[in-house]
Write a structure and sequence with these properties.
Length: 163
């Protein structure tokens, strides 16, 4: 099963100057809960923005220059689509950023999306997708509070099966 996880704003913006332009603690906990003990698949810039491998997950990273990642530990480096092969965990999550979402969205079976109720300045967006291709499995709305600066919605989509 190939999954995808993302948080975007009302314009599907996901990043600015290699950071995520909000802090939603509930989203961070959701990411942790879903991806722990699974495989996450990210672009080199997303790894750089996090600054280290995330613990208790298999961290696979896509780059064209594998030697540039020598200073990281606990990552698996790939330079091509073999990054999607021989996954040993139950799930693998496409983890971003924009380039990697665009590259692999069409291969994903499900998406876990957090829509943050704001509009930020951004240089990176999630690719457009046709909602008709997906079944909305669940949608939960949450109000802002001391840990979450904005209202937000958790959505779980599964790709519609072809007849
Ligand atoms: N809101 C969210 O949920 C979320 C999640 C993740 C990331 N983000 C944000 O997204 C932004 C980063 O996204 P991005 O699109 O700039 O970068 P990215 O997708 O994280 O990484 C791009 C890099 O991946 C490598 N790559 C891409 N395509 C490749 C291919 N076909 N073959 C080999 N390597 C390839 C290249 O690395 P090299 O340059 O090393 O060759 C490329 O520079 C940041 O702002 C980050 O904070 C947001």
């Amino acid at each position: 099963m190939l999954s995808l996880i993302v948080a975007y704003d009302k314009n599907k913006s996901i990043g600015q100057e290699n950071t995520i332009p909000w802090r939603i603690k509930s989203d961070m906990l959701r990411v942790k809960e879903l991806t722990t003990n699974q495989t996450i698949i990210m672009g080199r810039k997303t790894l750089d923005s996090i600054g280290r491998a995330l613990p208790n997950r298999i961290n696979r990273v896509l780059t064209r220059d594998e030697n540039s990642l020598n200073h990281y530990s606990n990552i698996e480096v790939y330079t091509d689509d073999s990054i999607l092969e021989n996954i040993e965990t139950e799930k693998a999550y496409i983890f971003g950023g924009g380039t990697v979402y665009s590259k692999y969205l069409h291969k994903c079976d499900e998406m876990f999306i957090t829509e943050v109720d704001t509009v930020v300045e951004a240089d990176t967006k999630f690719p457009e997708f046709d909602e008709n291709d997906w079944d909305l499995i669940s949608r939960e709305e949450f109000s802002k509070d001391e840990n979450n600066k904005f209202n937000f919605v958790f959505m779980h989509y599964k790709r519609k099966r072809k007849e």
